[in-house]
């Protein structure tokens, strides 16, 4: 019995083994759901408040003025929802008349109202007429490109809102563009400066972008990096170098414990490129002070412990921090003295026969470059150039011209081969250390050139041609200074007479807005601020020391000459004779006014 | 067995088919039973088969269990590693996704979709060709229609994420599941891991679908290796067991064969002794035992031979002086009337004791002749009926003296058998004499029976009978029912022994039956032709009037035959019907 039982057990065991053997010990085809751990819970909505959103349709109530203003700011904000926001203002029956564009094609037509909106109440609806100046098209990538539209006025109607289902006003017969007023641009956008390397990769060139304030602060880094990878503004293109083609930000830049992480895909990367990119990022993200980690395809390549330190160690462009004021007085260059400002000796030695009309001095390392316009006895003017250690002697002069404007030195040029630009007889010329003036062609600009100004970085110039303002990039292709296609800067002033850079992306321009005036404008013309709406006379000469982030404490300051009298800003006042520090050699009688003031830095 | 197909009458086809099925079933079961029987026989007979089978079964169990454990362990280790890896990736991926998605505070933001796609591609490692089939998916079950779920490669991963897993993840758990499905061109197992991703506006779900092809292949490899090793091991063990058993069993078989030959009388058979191991010891011991046995047997044979010779010699040597004594005693006996009565009585006693002595010597000589194997059967066709008459006549005087009547139940026809008349006569005389002697005055019945091949004679008395067990003892030499009773009356104590030898010489049987108070019956059965083998007897050993101690077979009322069964046991069978009826 026992034997039989044991045999049965054995048979059973073998059977079970044979059955379970092949199936029992493999990876199962299906398994139950197993919970490993509790996942992180959702962080309760700490979404940033959208105070920077433009007001909606009903915010204005039934006030047509406020409604029109709100309508002109409705498109502000993140571009992908601009149509949605604008359509809120439009009569639901007519919303289809606003044709939507997608993605990068979305552009906001930025206009400057030349006048208050003309609102005429009618029987059925209120008619609105806007007289505008086209400023540009704000693209989804934050650049403001020259205007494509040519309309000078827009007309639409307001539904007085006699509807039951909703209150407030509606726009009827809307313009088929997304309108944005310059004031809305000022109010709901922040102008951001990003930097690109120049062609020689020796210094950074600022570029301007607009970022909606509604974008959360955390996404700013991502957007800036995307701008950098997308390349510079069109007009700046010839003067700067882009990141390698195919450079892309991988996902968003993220922050943890104050440390930012930027993950890039960068074909053809090398140490130099990465270093340059790091510097570019450091300058383009001025609000970040802490560490930044630069990754290339998920590999950590650069860690910057402190962006602030990095900026101090790697200047965007060389600049001396103490501008000295000089002027032309009695045919010589004389320093100006203001309380609390440094002043120095004149680094140029001129002979008694040399009647200085205007001058430009620039430091290039420990050398001083000097370009002076000399009035000859024959009533013609010549350009005199000198270079070397302080003081320099003006030895070489150019051919005579009827009238030569104030020359400018391009600070980007190599110190031993300096270049400058000068306007003479309505033409734009370049000159070098040999004082030979060669004409420089300027594309896209018409009319006689009357003024030229170079930015601190030396790769952008502002030119007044035919009474209009242009900016252009400087390139050094072929070892010669050339200018890229000019971009017109729409300003409200007309009959422009003088220009200079008052900041990295701002210009000071003098012209006529009914009366002679000095305005400050952004490099694209959108943000225009009057500095002095009545200077009394046409400004013939204008010099500014630009606000810049390189010099930590820099106060923009401005001097100009109108009607033979020099003025200064902060506060606007006349530069008096007493403020001219006469050097001993020119000890003649004190007559006349200081003219053609300029900064030496 | 039941309904045979030859049954006449209408036989519908279903029943025929059923019959056919039954036939088939019977055939099959029969064949199976036959096979099972053969297997069982082999199992019982072959130690080698048993040992090898047991070894195979036990080692298969052990090796199988071990192999299962190892394979299972390998699989679980592989799976655990994969799980740990994926969980780590999932956690990192979740952190990354959470960071990337933290910029968005509503699900409607347009760049969210882009970020989701970028995140998924980033987590998958960018290049879809180099992800080893890993699919990363970011879904938004709570924002269906607002947020499009994205996966790193454009495959239908949805069916692989079961509803249970989705529920578990939606519930805020990190969970996993193994699923089988087809993402690429081949069907594979996938480890699906899911985790919630917290964002400012709610929860998204991150899934990793990692193919387990490599692990599966490794596990299969390991399994195949383990199984192959196990099978080889089991086979090796079986072979080993067979070899070892064969090593042990073959000498045992030789020993068994040798023992068989020894018992058959071939006393000089010996085993071959090889080496010095246990089996050699067995063979040596066996040989020694055989030698000892042979010596003992030879010695005993010699002793027995000497004894028989001695008996024979003594008998012969006694006969010569006895003849002289006899002659003298006869003389004295003849002259006894002239002596005084006391002496005459002594002479009579002397004469009587000399008769007995002579008889004893004759019997002793006869016995020694049997023992020496010199007894020869002198068979001739003899009619047994006159022989019975002759014996009864000869003993009539004795019967008369004892007051016993002898009844005969003989066939009327002659009963011819090839027998030695002298010996049969002696046997009958002995039996009848004993019956008369122990008949206690009651009648003695002699019955003669015959069938085709055998003749039988029974002698029935109604004396004191035999106690149980005495049926065999009565044939012993000098046996006495009551040892205290002096041997006064007749008989030498060798008569029945000689009779048994006589019957055996004929190839017949001499058996006894007796019960206390019921008398006894002796039966002599002889083959009708000399040299034939006996199988049954025409007469019953137990008389019909005897009361059996157990009543069972008697109930049938039929006559019973008790004869020698197999292995020397007594068998009680229904008597053959075609028995020759003996008229009284």
Automatic annotation (TrEMBL), chain B:
CDD domains in the record: HAMP, HATPase, HisKA
EC numbers, comma separated: 2.7.13.3
Pfam families: HAMP (PF00672), HATPase_c (PF02518), HisKA (PF00512)
TM ranges: 51-71, 226-249
Domain HAMP, first and last residues per copy: 246-298
Annotated spans, Disordered: 563-584
CC annotations in GO: plasma membrane
Membrane-topology annotation of the record: Multi-pass membrane protein
Single Gene Ontology MF annotation: ATP binding
Positions in coiled-coil regions: none
SUPFAM superfamilies referenced in this protein's UniProt entry, alphabetically: ATPase domain of HSP90 chaperone/DNA topoisomerase II/histidine kinase, HAMP domain-like, Homodimeric domain of signal transducing histidine kinase
Histidine kinase domain sequence ranges: 313-530
Annotated compartments: Cell membrane
Keywords recorded for this protein, A-Z: ATP-binding, Cell membrane, Kinase, Membrane, Nucleotide-binding, Phosphoprotein, Transferase, Transmembrane, Transmembrane helix, Two-component regulatory system
SMART domains attached to this UniProt entry: HAMP, HATPase_c, HisKA
Catalytic reaction list: ATP + protein L-histidine = ADP + protein N-phospho-L-histidine
Cross-referenced NCBIfam families: MtrAB_MtrB
Name of the protein this chain belongs to: Sensor histidine kinase MtrB
């Amino acid at each position: 019995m026992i034997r039989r039982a044991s045999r049965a057990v054995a048979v059973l065991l073998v059977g079970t083994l044979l059955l379970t053997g092949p199936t029992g010990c493999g990876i199962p085809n299906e398994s139950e759901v197993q919970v490993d751990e509790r996942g992180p819970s959702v962080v309760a909505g700490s979404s940033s408040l959208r105070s920077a959103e433009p007001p909606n349709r009903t915010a204005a109530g039934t006030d047509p003025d406020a409604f029109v203003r709100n309508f002109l700011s409705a498109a502000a904000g993140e571009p992908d929802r601009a149509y949605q926001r604008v359509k809120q203002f439009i009569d639901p029956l007519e919303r289809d008349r606003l044709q939507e564009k997608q993605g990068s094609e979305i552009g906001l037509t930025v206009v400057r109202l030349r006048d208050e909106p003309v609102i005429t109440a009618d029987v059925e609806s209120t008619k609105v007429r806007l007289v505008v100046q086209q400023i540009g098209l704000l693209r989804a990538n934050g650049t403001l490109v020259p205007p494509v539209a040519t309309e000078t006025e827009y007309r639409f109607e307001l539904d007085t809102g006699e509807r039951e289902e909703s209150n407030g006003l509606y726009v009827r017969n809307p313009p088929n563009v997304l309108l944005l007023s310059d004031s809305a641009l000022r109010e709901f956008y922040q102008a951001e400066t990003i930097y690109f390397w120049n062609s020689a990769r020796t210094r950074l060139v600022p570029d301007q972008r607009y970022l909606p304030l509604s974008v959360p602060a955390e996404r700013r880094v991502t957007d800036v990096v995307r701008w950098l990878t997308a390349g510079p503004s069109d007009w700046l293109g010839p003067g700067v170098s882009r990141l390698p083609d195919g450079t892309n930000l991988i996902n968003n830049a993220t922050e943890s414990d104050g440390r930012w992480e930027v993950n890039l895909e960068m074909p053809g990367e090398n140490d130099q490129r990465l270093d340059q990119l790091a510097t570019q990022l450091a300058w383009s993200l001025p609000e970040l002070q802490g560490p930044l980690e630069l990754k290339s395809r998920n590999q950590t390549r650069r860690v910057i412990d402190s962006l602030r330190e990095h900026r101090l160690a790697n200047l965007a462009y060389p600049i001396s921090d103490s501008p000295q004021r000089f002027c032309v007085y009695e045919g010589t260059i004389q320093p100006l003295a203001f309380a609390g400002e440094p002043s120095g000796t004149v680094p140029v030695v001129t002979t008694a026969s040399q009647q200085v009309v205007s001058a430009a001095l620039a430091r290039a390392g420990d050398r001083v470059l000097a370009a002076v316009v000399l009035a000859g006895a024959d009533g013609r003017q010549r350009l005199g150039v000198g270079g070397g250690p302080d003081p320099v002697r003006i030895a070489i002069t150019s051919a005579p011209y009827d009238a030569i404007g104030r020359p400018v030195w391009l600070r980007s040029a190599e110190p031993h081969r300096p270049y400058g630009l000068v306007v003479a007889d309505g033409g734009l010329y370049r000159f070098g250390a040999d004082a030979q003036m060669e004409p420089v062609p300027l594309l896209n600009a018409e009319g006689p050139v009357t003024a030229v100004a170079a930015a601190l970085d030396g790769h952008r110039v502002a030119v007044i041609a035919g009474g209009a303002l242009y900016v252009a990039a400087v390139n050094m292709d072929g070892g010669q200074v050339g200018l890229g296609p000019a971009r017109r800067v729409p300003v409200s002033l007309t009959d422009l007479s003088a220009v200079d850079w008052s900041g990295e992306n701002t210009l000071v321009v003098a012209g006529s807005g009914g009366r002679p005036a000095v305005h400050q404008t952004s490099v694209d013309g959108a943000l225009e601020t009057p500095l002095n709406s009545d200077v009394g006379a046409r400004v013939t000469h204008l010099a500014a020391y630009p606000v810049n982030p390189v010099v930590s404490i820099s106060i923009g300051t401005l001097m100009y000459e109108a009607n033979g009298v020099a003025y200064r800003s902060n506060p606007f006042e006349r530069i008096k004779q007493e403020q001219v520090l006469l050097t001993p050699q020119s000890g003649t009688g004190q007559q006349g006014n200081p003219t053609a003031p300029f900064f030496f830095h | 067995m039941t309904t045979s197909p030859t049954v006449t009458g209408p036989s519908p086809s279903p029943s025929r088919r059923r019959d056919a099925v039954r036939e088939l079933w019977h055939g099959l079961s029969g064949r199976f039973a036959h096979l099972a029987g053969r297997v069982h026989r082999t199992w019982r007979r072959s130690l080698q088969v048993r040992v090898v089978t047991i070894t195979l079964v036990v080692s298969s169990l052990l090796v199988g269990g071990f192999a299962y454990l190892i394979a299972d362990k390998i699989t679980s280790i592989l799976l655990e590693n994969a799980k740990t890896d994926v969980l780590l990736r999932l956690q990192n991926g979740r952190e990354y996704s959470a960071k990337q998605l933290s910029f968005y505070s509503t699900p409607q933001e347009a760049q969210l979709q882009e970020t989701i796609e970028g995140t998924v591609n980033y987590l998958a490692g960018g290049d879809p060709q180099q992800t080893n089939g890993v699919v990363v998916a970011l879904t938004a079950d709570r924002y269906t229609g607002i947020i499009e779920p994205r996966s790193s490669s454009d495959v239908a991963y949805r069916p692989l994420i079961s509803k249970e897993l989705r529920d578990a993840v939606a519930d805020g758990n990190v969970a996993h599941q193994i699923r089988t499905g087809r993402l690429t061109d081949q069907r594979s197992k996938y480890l699906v891991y899911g985790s919630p991703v917290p964002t400012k506006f709610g929860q998204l779900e991150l899934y990793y679908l990692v193919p387990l092809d490599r692990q599966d292949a490794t596990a299969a490899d390991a399994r195949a290796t383990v199984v192959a090793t196990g099978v080889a091991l089991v086979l090796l063990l079986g072979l080993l067991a067979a070899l070892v058993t064969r090593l042990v069993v073959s000498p045992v078989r030789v020993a068994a064969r040798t023992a068989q030959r020894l018992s058959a009388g071939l006393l000089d058979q010996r085993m071959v002794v090889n080496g010095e191991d246990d089996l050699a010891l067995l063979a040596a011991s066996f040989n020694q035992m055989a030698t000892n046995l042979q010596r003992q047997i030879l010695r005993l044979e010699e002793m027995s031979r000497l004894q028989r010779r001695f008996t024979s010699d003594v008998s012969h040597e006694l006969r010569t002086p006895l003849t002289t004594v006899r002659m003298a005693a006869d003389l004295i006996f003849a002259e006894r009337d002239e002596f005084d009565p006391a002496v005459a009585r002594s002479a009579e006693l002397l004469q009587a004791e000399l008769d007995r002595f002579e008889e004893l010597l004759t019997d002793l000589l006869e016995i020694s002749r049997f023992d020496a194997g010199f007894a020869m059967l002198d068979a001739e066709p003899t009619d047994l009926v006159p022989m019975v008459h002759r014996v009864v006549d000869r003993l009539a005087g004795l019967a008369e003296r004892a007051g016993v009547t002898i009844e005969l139940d003989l066939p009327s026809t002659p009963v011819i058998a090839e027998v030695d008349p002298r010996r049969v006569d002696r046997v009958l005389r002995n039996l009848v004499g004993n019956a008369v002697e122990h008949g206690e005055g009651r009648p003695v019945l002699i019955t003669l029976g015959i069938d085709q091949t055998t003749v039988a004679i029974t002698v029935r008395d109604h004396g004191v009978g035999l106690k149980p067990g005495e049926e065999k003892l009565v044939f012993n030499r000098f046996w006495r029912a009551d040892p205290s009773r002096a041997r006064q009356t007749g008989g030498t104590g060798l008569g029945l022994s000689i009779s048994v030898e006589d019957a055996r010489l004929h190839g017949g049987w001499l058996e006894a039956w007796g019960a206390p108070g019921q008398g006894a019956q002796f039966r002599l059965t002889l083959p009708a032709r000399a040299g034939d083998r006996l199988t049954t007897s025409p007469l019953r050993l137990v008389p019909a009037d005897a009361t059996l101690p157990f009543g069972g077979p008697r109930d049938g009322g039929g006559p019973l035959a008790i004869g020698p069964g197999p292995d020397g046991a007594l068998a009680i069978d229904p008597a053959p019907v075609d028995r020759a009826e003996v008229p009284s």
